[in-house]
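Lab notes, practical 5.
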Amino acid sequence: MANNKSAKKRIQIAERNRLINKSYKSTVRTLTKKTIQNCEEYKKNPNEDNENLVKTSLNKAFSLIDKAVKKNILHKNNGANKKSRINKFVKTILTSK
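Output from the prediction step:
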């Protein structure tokens, strides 16, 4: 256990940052799943509305991944790998009509 004031404060700050990081990572996973789910819906029923839904969810996922990388929650290579994986899946769905 921490014995001085500064060590106690660092423990509080580390816990706060851990929760924020956890929330970012969870949201990235959720948006990735939603994007893939929207791609599956587009595959079943290819129309313009579903295509726009895929593109907007892709943009949201990319935006959040970039923010997480910028705030050092994700490593830049990890963020790039996540974006590449999502983009590869979306491209295969959108190009195969």
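Observations recorded by the TA: The mean pLDDT is 93. The chain has one domain: 5-95.
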